[in-house]
UniProtKB/TrEMBL annotation:
Gene Ontology molecular function: beta-mannosidase activity
Record's catalysed reaction(s): Hydrolysis of terminal, non-reducing beta-D-mannose residues in beta-D-mannosides
Keyword Lipid biosynthesis: no
Name of the featured protein: Beta-mannosidase B
């Protein structure tokens, strides 16, 4: 078969020409920045959207064309119409040429990358500034109002009868007309779909077949349509035909595997393959060869459209696939080849699979907890019920073609190394490319996959439903062989939006979430992968905030009731699939977007900081939380550190919003756009370790008030004393014997300390309450009752360690400091550090001790260059407990350190 020179990305790139012609390109200074909803997709670009989870996301990109020819007697769809419109390619170019008032015209330019998107092309031509720097975002808004053309030519061998070309378009974003040799063959309206067409030979030329793509402004077309329904809810008016996408196609091989466990723990695997072939095929002369690589199975020949089955693959020959932390990620490759009578391979396909079971357990509780009765919401993998700790995922860049496989691997490795085992693909982003899920399979990261609906009221007329149905079929078919995918979810916050606005009588898209999508998941996955109607969703009259059922998005800290973050322990539920608090990124990232800015912009509330903060009401909310917990400052670096410390204190586990960023910005991300982890990343890493220990301080007062229970009060409300509750969590599947060590230090009395120890047994796969005591403190002499010093524990730092009962190795640490932090007088901790070069040239050992307690000791590097990998960071240190951190990639650069009380970093 031929491929017209499109056998690799470099070859394709060299053949692609681009028309960069614009229509109505004037810069709209009053235009608001678009944000993503159903429009984020692979091979596309957009303006910045971090922090917002709904609206527009306009992108312009080229195509993914796969030219295939078949040497056997092929058939094709003769009903395919090549005159879908009256326009020819010449008509399109002529119309754009005569548009008046065009003040931006580059003419034909060579595309520099493949896949391509117009923002990246313009950046490579230096036709636009970097939109991530300064206020440049506003200088590129005109791109979404323009219309763009892409063109390429390709040859075709007409000498072999009955050949045809197969064109596969991926990620055409969004309103695009496709012309082949002056005939309009396709009009697209859904970037989340794959469009594949077989072009008969009589419609092709021996050379210079011209393919032209005309991308229209979705914004302009949207303004021509009317809203699909009435009401004051934020209905997105023209989503009926303005949806977007990405997938990959090939020889369709579906691998079905059923793992059945026996009472004794043994299991059997039943493996079935459904193989679908296109084109005419002589069953008497051709055959399918199927092989399960990595397993002791012999290849076999099978008839066309038959079901290939192996049964009773015993567990001594087949290994299960396990999530990270529970076992190995064993993967097998199923290889299928189509061969002719001479044993020559005509075509082939393969799928990499893993054998595992998955269930979403929603069982009634027999006893109430602090929230009442209700049902469970937990995942069971291979008969083991597991705690899910992870993050939400948004597109890793606004310019999606810029995300390499290496960058995907760095992000997902960062998540895995942070002791997280689940990632949720947010419904306002995109279906990720295959490489994303391949890496999740390899790393053992479980995937919760939202269908791409978010924060909107979508229509449900026949045309739209049919479009979405095909989108779902495309993507579930593409993704169903991945063992990492354990949940498909209908939407993000669509049920919640209806309840929030209250005046929408019904949710039209219920037919999608409750009928169409679950039916597709059940039909195309075997055994079925769990399906959840929405996130959040409980099921009781669409209730999305009931903590006793379903999953919950907990935004009553940052948003909602705007409670203090110390109240998170009361804001739980069966499964928290979103929560978090934003912070500034690292100073290196801030300096990137501040490049060239006037010194007058270097303060926390400046216009340029606001430009890079898309979260609504961030100034007021930051001011409230910072004022309650920290001493206010106008120093920029101190402010950055304090917001990061606040985030690390307020965010610990479940599915955090969010892992990553799509541009340099102030956001909820636990690592910024440049993959620089914030302190919260390391806090989460420690809290999701296999064994953890925790402390809750309850400050008892003379009467209740609306302040956090952890706050010491010295005003109208008086503090009496404080109690401590200590617990531990063991997520392993075996009992752990350990020693609990408690140590107490007073910030104002350096000569006082106290310690206690206790032997403990940590039960498997659960939390264990260990101890409840009154918090001790130094005795105070000559102090009048009611004065601050009369409460002996008001300045006491509590340190807990769990040590292995046999080896004495530290299993877990936790420190609890008195709050609010703004009251504290923090002494110089006497931090001593040493750096020792390891045996491997790229690894350094960093050792640290203190003579007084230190909070959030955070290390960074002084100079630019590749990111440094820290095995731990943002540490709470106490005297007598030396801590060691492994540092990778330091390469002789100087190390800086900051901590609470000295927030401006200094070289060690």
């Amino acid at each position: 078969m031929q491929n017209g020179g499109y056998d690799s990305v470099p070859a394709r790139t060299s053949l692609v020409d681009t028309v960069l012609k614009s229509r109505n390109p004037q810069i709209r200074k009053d235009r608001t920045t678009p944000y993503p909803s159903r429009t984020a997709a692979i091979n596309s670009s957009a303006s910045m959207f971090s922090g917002i989870r709904a609206s527009d996301f306009e992108k312009f990109l080229v195509f993914n064309v796969d030219l295939r020819t078949w040497h056997e007697d092929a058939t094709y769809n003769k009903a395919l119409k090549f005159d879908l419109g009256k326009h020819t390619t010449a008509d399109v170019i002529r119309e754009l040429d005569v548009v008046e008032n065009v003040d931006f015209r580059l003419g034909w330019k060579k595309a520099t990358s493949f896949p391509s998107e117009i923002h990246v092309e313009l950046l490579s031509l230096k036709a636009i500034p970097d939109p991530y720097v300064g206020f440049n975002e506003h200088k590129v808004q005109w791109i979404g109002d323009a219309e763009w053309l892409y063109q390429c030519t390709f040859p075709f061998d007409l000498s072999i009868p009955h050949q045809y070309a197969k064109l596969i378009f991926e990620g055409l974003d969004t309103i695009c007309d496709v012309y082949l040799n002056n005939s309009k063959i396709l009009a697209t309206d859904n970037v989340f779909r794959t469009y594949a067409y077989e072009i008969p030979q009589e419609n092709l030329l021996r050379s210079n077949n011209t393919l032209l793509l005309h991308f229209k402004s979705a914004k302009a077309l949207r303004s021509l349509k009317k809203p699909s329904m009435e009401g004051s809810a934020p209905v997105q008016p023209t989503l009926e035909m303005l949806v977007e996408c990405m997938t990959q196609m090939g020889l369709d091989v579906h691998v079905r595997n059923l793992v059945e466990f026996q009472p004794d723990g043994a299991f059997t695997v039943t493996l079935k393959l459904d193989v679908a072939l296109s084109g005419a095929w002589d069953a008497s002369g051709n055959a399918l060869l199927v092989q399960l690589a990595n397993a002791e199975q012999s290849p076999g020949k099978f008839q066309r459209n038959s079901v290939v089955m192996w049964t009773n693959l015993e567990n001594d020959g087949i290994q299960l696939w396990w999530p990270v932390g529970y076992g190995e990620q064993t993967l097998y490759r199923v290889e299928v080849s189509l061969v002719n009578k001479n044993d020559e391979v005509i075509d082939s396909a393969s799928r990499r699979v893993g054998f595992r079971t998955v269930k979403l357990i929603q069982e009634p509780l027999s006893e109430p907890d602090q929230y009442g009765l209700g049902t469970t919401f937990l995942f069971e993998i291979n008969n083991v019920r597991m705690f899910m700790g992870g993050s939400n995922w948004i597109p890793a860049d606004n310019f999606l073609t810029q995300i390499s496989a290496e960058r995907y691997r760095k992000w997902l490795t960062l998540l895995r190394d942070g002791n997280q085992n689940m990632v949720r693909i947010w419904g306002g982003g995109m279906y990720e490319p295959d490489v994303f899920y391949d890496i999740c399979d390899e790393l053992g990261i479980l995937v919760w996959q939202d269908f791409q609906f978010a924060c909107g009221v979508y229509p449900a007329h026949e045309e739209f439903v049919a479009n979405v149905r095909q989108e779902a079929i495309d993507n579930v078919t593409r993704l169903r062989h991945h063992p990492s995918i354990v949940c498909y979810c209908g939407n993000n916050e669509d049920y919640q939006l209806v309840l929030q606005w209250g005046d929408v009588a019904q949710l039209p898209a219920r037919i999608l979430y409750e009928d169409v999508l679950p039916d597709i998941v059940a039909t195309l996955t075997d055994p079925p992968v769990p399906y959840h109607r929405g996130s959040p969703y409980g099921g009781k009259g669409w209730d999305t905030s009931d903590p006793t059922i379903g999953d919950v998005h907990q935004w009553n800290i940052w948003g909602g009731k705007e409670l203090q973050y110390q109240e998170y322990d009361r804001m739980g539920g069966r499964f928290i699939s979103e929560f978090g608090i934003p912070s500034m990124p690292s100073m290196r990232t801030v300096n990137y977007w501040m490049a060239g800015a006037d010194e007058s912009q270097f303060y926390p509330q400046s216009q340029l900081v606001a430009q890079h903060t898309k979260a609504g009401s961030f100034e007021r909310r930051f001011a409230i939380v910072m004022n309650e917990n920290f001493r206010l400052t106008t120093d920029f670096e101190t402010h950055v550190f304090s917001t990061q410390l606040m985030q690390s204190e307020a965010t610990s586990g479940v599915l955090v919003w969010q892992l990553n960023d799509c541009w340099p910005v102030v956001s909820w991300a636990i690592a910024d756009y440049f993959l620089r982890p914030k302190p919260v990343y390391y806090t989460i890493k420690r809290e999701l370790a296999p064994v953890t220990v925790g402390i809750f301080r309850n400050v008892v007062k003379n009467r209740e008030n609306d302040r956090p229970r952890q706050f010491y009060e010295f005003g109208a409300i008086q503090t009496l004393y404080a109690t401590l509750s200590i617990w531990a969590t063991n997520s392993t599947l075996t009992v752990r014997k350990a020693k609990l060590e408690l140590r107490f230090f007073d910030l104002l009395s350096p000569g006082w300390s106290h310690s206690e120890t206790q032997d403990v047994n940590l039960l498997p796969n659960q939390s264990t309450e260990l101890l409840e005591i009154e918090c001790p403190g130094p005795s105070r002499n000559n102090v009048v009752r009611g004065e601050p010093l009369s409460v002996s524990s008001a300045n006491v730092v509590v340190s807990a360690r769990l040590l292995d009962a046999e080896t004495g190795v530290v299993l877990a640490r936790h420190s609890d400091w008195p709050e609010p932090y703004r009251y504290l007088q923090t002494p110089d901790p006497g931090l001593i550090t040493s750096l020792t070069q390891g045996e491997r040239s790229n690894e350094t050992t960093l050792t640290m001790t203190v003579s007084k307690p230190a909070k959030c000791v955070f290390f960074s590097v002084e100079d630019a260059g590749p990111e440094v990998q820290w095995s731990d960071n943002a540490l709470d240190l106490v005297p007598g407990d030396e801590q060691v951190v492994l540092v990778g990639g330091l390469n002789g650069r100087k190390v800086k350190v900051a901590y609470f009380g000295r927030q401006k970093a200094q070289v060690i």
